[in-house]
Each structure stands twice: as C-alpha cells, then as structure tokens.
C-alpha cells in the first residue's frame, strides 16, 4: 500500500498523535509513505527524522548520491564522445552541494536531510534525462525521404533529424596555439552573436563549425575558418570576403557575413547552414537500391541534379566570371527537395589556382580551372552517380550517358561550349527519360532545329496513287508494308538547323523560305559568304538535286532523245557537286580548329550522303551529331530513318519512339512508327501512333489521311475486314474532309474509291456468310454520320447504289489522269474505264472488240474507242 499525505504538519492534532497514525500505516506489509511538508522545521518532521530515519540517514543518502554522481560522469563522458560537445560540470556542482550538506549535518541534521533529499531528486532526474538522450543518440540518425511527385524536375524530399557533428565545440575561454586552425571561441563576436555548437567538417582550407545566430532566433549557421598556417589561404580569405558575400543563387549556399573572431586569429565566414545528404551518400543509397533511388526514375534524378548544378555554374560563369572550382560528390548537398553547392571556399576567378577534387586534364597540378573544367567536374560527378544506378538500356539512358561523355571529353574544345548549352541538352534528355518512362508526351521546342516541313510518310500520308489501279481490276488492294521515303527525299525533308545568332546573316536568314529553292539560291547569291549562308546553299542544292532525281525517275517513251534523258542526270550531278562545294567552303570559314567540333558539319555531310543515296555512309555522321547534341529530335529522326532504310527495324523503332513519345507533333516519327507496326502486321498500333499527332501539327492532315487508308486497307494475315471496319474508315474520311484540312478534291475521290472497293468486299463476305449485309450496315452506321452529306457522298444503302457509285468513281479517276499521249497514261485510262464498266450493273464494255453496245464519245474521255 502507498499512502500520500499533503502538508501533515498543518494537522490540528498533536505531532505525537499524527506520528502514531503514520507508524500504524507503515507497519502494514510493503507499505510506503509519501509526505509533503510545508515547513522544513516542523516538529512532526523532526519526530519522523529521529524515530524513523535516524542520525545515520544523511550518511547513507550521501553514499547513494555519490554513486549516482559517478554514473552521471560516465554518461556525460559517453555523450561527449558521441556529440563532441564540451563535458558539462554539473556532476562537480552536485558534488559540491553534497559536501556542503554533509558538513551541515553535524550542526543541523534535519535541515541537511531535507537538502540531501532534494539533491538526490535533482541528480536522479538529470541522470534519467541524460540516459534518455543517450538512448536516442544510440539509435541510427533519423533520415526520412519522401518520394517525389510526377513533376518534370521534382526530386525526393530529404529530411534529416539534426546536424551531424564531427568534432567538439570549442573551449569557453579559448587560447589557440599559434599556427593551428583549432580554438574557435565558444562565443564569437560581434557581441557574442554566434554560439558555436561543434565542428561539422574539414573543408578545402580549414574547418567548418555549427553555431547558433543569437541575433536571429538562434538560427543555425555554419562558420568557416581558414587555416592560419596557410598564407595563401589567409590571403585568399580577404578576397573571398568580398566576392563570396556577393553571391546570391538558390542552389549555392549563402554567405551571410565575414567577421573576425574574438582572438583575432583569422577571419570567419558566416554561411547558411544546409542539412541533408551529400551526393556521395545518395550514391551509396543507389548502390543499396534504397527507395526512391532504386528504379529507372533515378536517371531522371541524376539529370535534375545536373540541370540545377548547371544553373548555379551558369550564374557563376556569366554573372560573376567565377568558377566553382571544386565540384565533387561531397560538395553537393541534396537538402529538402533541392540541391546546394556547399563548399564555396574554392570559388575563384577564371584560370586561378585552387583546390580541385576532380582535376580536368588541362587544369594541371595547381587546379587552374576554366568554365570548361567545371563542366568536366560535373560530368565526372554525374558519371559516378550513373555508375551506381540500376542497369537500364533504353535510349533515354543512352542519351544521358552521351551527355556526360561529351562533358568529360579530354579536349575542352570538344565539350559543351557553356553551362547553358549543356543544361539545354540535359533538360531535353530529362524530358526524353520522363516521356519514355510514362509513355506520355513531355513537349519542348528544339533548341537547334526548326520543324520538319514535309513528313517522312513514304506516301502513306497521301491518297492512293492513280497507278495502283493500273492493274488488278476492281479488286481491293492489299495495304502491305510501307516503304520509307527515298534517301533523296529524306535529305531534303529532314529539319534544318537554326542559324547561328553570331552569324552576320542571322537576321536575314530568319526570314528565308524553302518554297522555291531555285529562286532563293538566286536571291542570296550576292550576300556575304558566311558559314550559315554556305550551309543554307548546301541544303538548297540538295533540294534541287532531289528535283533532278525525280525528273530522272520519270518513265520515258521509246522515242525520247538520249540528250533529253541526260539533262536531269547532268543537273543532278551539278547540284550534288555544288552542295559539296558549299559545305567545303563552310568548313573552311568555320576554321580548322573549330570545324572538327562543330556538329553542323557532320549534319550537312550526312544530308549530302543521303542525297547521294549512301545511307550506310550517312548513319555514322548522324551518330556523331547525336553524340554531340544528345537531347535533340533531329539526329534521332535521321538515325531512325537510316536504320529503317537498312532493315534494322528494332533500332529504327527505338529512335522513332523516342522522338514521338516526347513530341507527338513530330509527324515523321509517328509515320516511322506506323510503318514499323504495319510491317509487323499490327495496324491497330499504327493507328494509335498516327492518332497521337495533335491538331495543331502541320502533319495532322497527312496523319488523318493515313488513318483512312489503314482503316480501309487489307492487311496481310489479318482477319477479313468487316462492316465495322468500313464504318470506322468512312467516319475517318468524313472527319478528314470536314475537320482535318483535306481540300484536295482529287485526293478525296481516290480515298472514297478505296472505301467503296472495301464495301464491295465486306458486303460480299457478309452475304457468303449467310447474313444481311445492308441491314447490318444500317445498324452500324450512326444516323448522323452522313445525314448532312449530298446524296452522291452518302453511304450506299443497296448493292445497286454501291456499284453505280463505284463505277462513277472509276470514271472520275480516269479524268484525273493527265492526257499526255504517253503509253503508260493511256493504259491507266483504259484500266480505269474498264473497271467502271466491269462493276456497273449493266456490264457494258467500252472496247470496240468487246461484245455489247459501243460507248458514246463523251464516256471514253473525248476519244474514239480503239479500232
């Protein structure tokens, strides 16, 4: 039993009576009494002391307190070793109180007993608190990492419980030995504003301490002190105080002030304190595959680290004409959801000597760093992180590796020209990584190329050519694997680079148009010859070479002269030689030192090889461009084409998908994917790629035209088309004509003829299966689908309507054939008119030798039928 009595000395009963009651309670087995007295000199308290405690009690309590003080010292020692804090003197203070109370017990034992009781409580409470703190410190440092959202540049949020100290706080009354870097005072001027807690780390030139800024609500700051034994460091500190305090960037630790400490031993830099994980600690987590650094998204984190560090480097290089100088995994902190460059002691002017954890080849042993050296160091930092990341082999990861590889090339001239240029490529690679991971568009305009004027559709984005009806009668044609564009077409249609802003012709080149290559060549003939002008001439001659090659490919009659046949060939040779000459002159003007590192040269060389039909020679040239600007669309588009043309379908698909995922408006990539899927007999996947081309893309009309052809096409080794396929194809055609920009009536007629041929096939198939195709078709077609169309354009509702419509379509196609008098054109007209009368319900034939009535003159295109 436990009994508590509050202020028993205030009881009205006599002290002896109260004592008797208390003794009776205490006599019970395992009974405990808790008495709280108001007056330490109360008579009842004296009676209790004499009869219950005895005069030996102070000595016994003193021994217990002394043992607890020994334990207190041991706990304090362990805490000091763990936290590097100066050991408190509370045990000595308690021991002094104990000695005083022991001596007082000789004269006033009751008062001494009371004070010893309070002292024992104080010692026990402090010991309990210190043991609890020791238990907390014995547990691992609490670091929580929250996973990021799906924003483009979001990083995980790193939360650290408290700062990690590596050394003790300084003595309260410091007397540093001459020539040492130790002995930063516990309190630092002005007016003891900074209360030093302990050492954080050793940096490039001295030590970094953690302190409280007592003038700003005890805000944590870092105090950086240079080593006074290093004369160079002290001299540099004077310059640092001016330039470092002036730095103000969100990704660079802020230097608040520069002061002298109390003993005048050297200057102290007062810096923003940032706590988190260094990139070296992040790298270790990657190696251990700890979430969220365990999967393919870590490649995006690495790219974000690079982009933010480059933002800080761009600020230093262009805004302050400084280099960071000592970029390493340990000098970049992931704090919260951002990063900080934390050791600014090595920041210096261009070419100045200084510390460098990573030393570029050109920096020498003294660390004389230029901006290109900072980019090299960043590349090495990112390379170390990449080596710890999970193995991922996609094109996005390869683009990231190429970006890092260019930053770390031994020759500074081969690296990125600036932090801004590298950031542009790294940001584009970040978008590529995200798009491929989520299969979601992450669009941004190209930094170096214009848009593609014409699509790489290989003819799929145009209405069927008339020549497809030259043979095969009225039977539906197979839409088989589609061929890529001819190399000469690819050379002319690949995007053109943006003109260099430093080129004297830059402003005029911004206003040029490729609609008339021959005319533009004449207009620019008198302009000043600059690299960009010569590269433009090279591209214009490539356009002219395509026209000559197309003319050369036209069929010729037996009576055509040999001289007429040579004219396009001579023109082709002339244009290719002129393109090569312009490129050679551009290379000369750029200079022998710069041209080997200028990606514009291999780009145009690759175009020239395509114009020569040398796709295999063009591929390594475009690969070189890809290695120089890994984030750009154009090199990937060119490489996708080269791989496709050379039959390397998996590589082609990978490049096309990389471009299309990031920017659905790149119609050429969508067509490339569509051709790959059609070759794999996957028309539905081809439809998905083409449907993704957005309405604001200049390639939208071509993509929707291709959708009509795919919906209406026969596909090898696929089930026979159904009435549902026809309904989808008809809806796609109406959408194309009314909403997607098809204004070519001749193209619409060819597409409509293709659809009618499909309907003949599916109606026949449904009838053979024992169904009623026309009732089924009426049920599948929405009522409003062709309500507003003129009768000739509506879906036929009977077989007779269908055949009459198809016959009329063949006759209109015959009118589209040019009347050149050439054998091929005449044969095409005959074939189309044959089809018209073959499908017509009356089965009239137009040939003079055929049985049946003779066709009137107007029906045979204004000619007498063959005699």
Automatic annotation (TrEMBL):
Coiled coil ranges: none
Record region (Disordered): 160-183, 470-507, 840-867
GO molecular-function terms, A-Z: ATP binding; protein serine/threonine kinase activity
Name the UniProt record assigns to this protein: Serine/threonine protein kinase
Cross-referenced Pfam families: Pkinase, PknG_TPR
Classification via SMART domains: S_TKc
Entry keyword annotation includes RNA-binding: no
Domain Protein kinase: from-to ranges: 194-449
UniProt cross-references to PROSITE patterns, sorted A to Z: PROTEIN_KINASE_DOM (PS50011)
Superkingdom, natural source: Bacteria
UniProt keywords, alphabetically: ATP-binding, Kinase, Nucleotide-binding, Serine/threonine-protein kinase, Transferase
Signal peptide limits: none
């Amino acid at each position: 039993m436990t009994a508590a009595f509050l202020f028993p000395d205030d009881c009205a009963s006599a002290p002896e009576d109260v004592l008797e009651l208390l003794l009776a309670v205490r006599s019970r087995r395992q009974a405990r009494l808790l008495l709280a007295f108001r007056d330490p000199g109360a008579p009842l308290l004296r009676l209790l002391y004499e009869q219950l405690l005895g005069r030996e009690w102070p000595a016994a309590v003193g021994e217990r307190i002394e043992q607890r003080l020994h334990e207190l010292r041991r706990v304090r020692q362990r805490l000091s070793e763990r936290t590097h804090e100066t050991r408190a003197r509370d045990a000595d203070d308690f021991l002094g109180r104990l000695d005083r109370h022991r001596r007082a017990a000789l004269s006033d034992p009751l008062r001494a007993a009371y004070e010893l009781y309070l002292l024992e409580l104080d010692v026990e409470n402090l010991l309990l608190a210190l043991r609890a703190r020791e238990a907390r410190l014995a547990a691992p440092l609490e670091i929580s990492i929250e996973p990021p959202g799906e924003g483009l540049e979001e990083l995980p949020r790193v939360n650290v419980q408290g700062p990690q100290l590596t050394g003790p706080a300084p003595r309260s009354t410091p007397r540093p030995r001459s020539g040492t870097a130790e002995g930063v005072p516990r309190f630092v001027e002005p007016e003891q504003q900074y209360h030093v807690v302990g050492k954080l780390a050793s940096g490039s030139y001295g030590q970094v301490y953690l302190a409280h800024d007592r003038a700003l609500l005890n805000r944590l700051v870092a105090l950086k002190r240079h080593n006074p034994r290093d004369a160079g460091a002290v001299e540099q500190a004077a310059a640092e105080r001016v330039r470092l305090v002036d730095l103000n960037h969100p990704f660079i630790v802020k230097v608040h002030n520069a002061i002298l400490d109390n003993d005048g031993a050297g200057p102290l830099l007062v810096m923003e304190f940032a706590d988190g994980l260094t990139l070296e600690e992040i790298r270790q987590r990657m190696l251990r595959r700890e979430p969220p650094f365990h999967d393919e998204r870590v490649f995006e984190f690495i790219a974000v680290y690079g982009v933010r560090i480059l933002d800080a480097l761009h600020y230093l290089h262009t805004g302050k004409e400084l280099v960071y100088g000592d970029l390493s995994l340990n000098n970049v902190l992931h704090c919260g959801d951002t990063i900080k460059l934390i050791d600014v002691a090595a920041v210096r002017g261009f070419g100045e000597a200084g510390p460098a954890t990573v030393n570029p080849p050109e920096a020498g042993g003294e660390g004389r760093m230029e901006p290109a050296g900072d980019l090299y160091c960043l590349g090495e930092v990112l390379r170390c992180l990449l080596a710890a990341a999970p193995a991922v082999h996609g094109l996005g990861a390869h683009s990231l590796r190429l970006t890092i590889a260019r930053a770390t090339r031994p020759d500074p001239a081969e690296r990125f020209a600036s932090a801004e240029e590298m950031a542009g490529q790294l940001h584009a690679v970040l978008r590529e990584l995200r798009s491929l991971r989520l299969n979601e568009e992450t669009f941004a305009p190209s930094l170096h190329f214009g848009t593609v004027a014409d699509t790489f559709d290989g003819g799929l984005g145009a209405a069927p050519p008339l020549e497809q009806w030259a043979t095969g009668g009225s039977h539906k044609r197979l839409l088989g694997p589609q061929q890529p564009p001819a190399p000469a077409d690819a050379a002319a249609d690949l995007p053109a680079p943006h003109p260099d802003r430093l080129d004297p012709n830059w402003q005029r080149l911004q206003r040029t148009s490729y609609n008339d290559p021959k005319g533009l060549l004449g207009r620019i003939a008198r302009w000043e010859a600059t690299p960009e002008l010569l590269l433009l001439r090279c591209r214009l001659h490539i356009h002219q070479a395509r026209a000559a090659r197309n003319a050369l490919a036209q069929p010729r009659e037996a009576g055509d002269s040999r001289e007429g046949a040579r004219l396009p060939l001579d023109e082709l040779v002339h244009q290719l030689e002129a393109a090569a000459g312009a490129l050679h002159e551009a290379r000369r003007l750029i200079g022998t030192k710069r041209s080997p590192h200028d990606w514009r040269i291999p780009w145009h060389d690759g175009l020239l090889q395509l114009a020569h039909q040398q796709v295999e020679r063009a591929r390594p040239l475009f690969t070189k461009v890809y290695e120089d600007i890994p984030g750009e669309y154009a090199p990937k588009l060119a490489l996708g084409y080269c791989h496709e043309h050379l039959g390397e379908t998996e590589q082609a698909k990978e490049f096309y998908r990389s471009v299309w995922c990031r920017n659905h408006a790149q119609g050429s990539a969508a067509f490339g994917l569509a051709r790959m899927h059609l070759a794999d007999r996957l028309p539905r996947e081809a439809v998905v790629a083409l449907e993704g081309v957005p309405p604001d893309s200049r390639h939208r009309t071509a993509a929707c035209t291709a959708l009509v052809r795919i919906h209406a096409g026969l596909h090898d080794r696929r089930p026979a088309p159904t009435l549902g396929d026809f309904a989808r194809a008809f809806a796609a055609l109406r959408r194309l004509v009314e909403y997607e920009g098809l204004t070519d009536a001749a193209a619409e007629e060819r597409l409509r003829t293709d659809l009618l041929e499909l309907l003949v096939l599916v109606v026949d198939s449904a009838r053979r299966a024992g169904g009623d195709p026309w009732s089924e078709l009426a049920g599948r077609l929405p009522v409003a689908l062709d309500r507003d169309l003129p009768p000739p354009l509506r879906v036929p509702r009977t077989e007779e309507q269908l055949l009459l419509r198809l016959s009329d379509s063949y006759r209109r196609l015959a009118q589209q054939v040019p009347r050149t008098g050439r054998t091929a054109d005449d044969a095409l007209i005959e074939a189309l008119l044959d089809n018209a009368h073959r499908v017509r319900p009356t089965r009239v034939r137009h040939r003079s030798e055929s049985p049946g009535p003779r066709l009137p003159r107007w029906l045979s295109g204004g000619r007498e039928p063959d005699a």
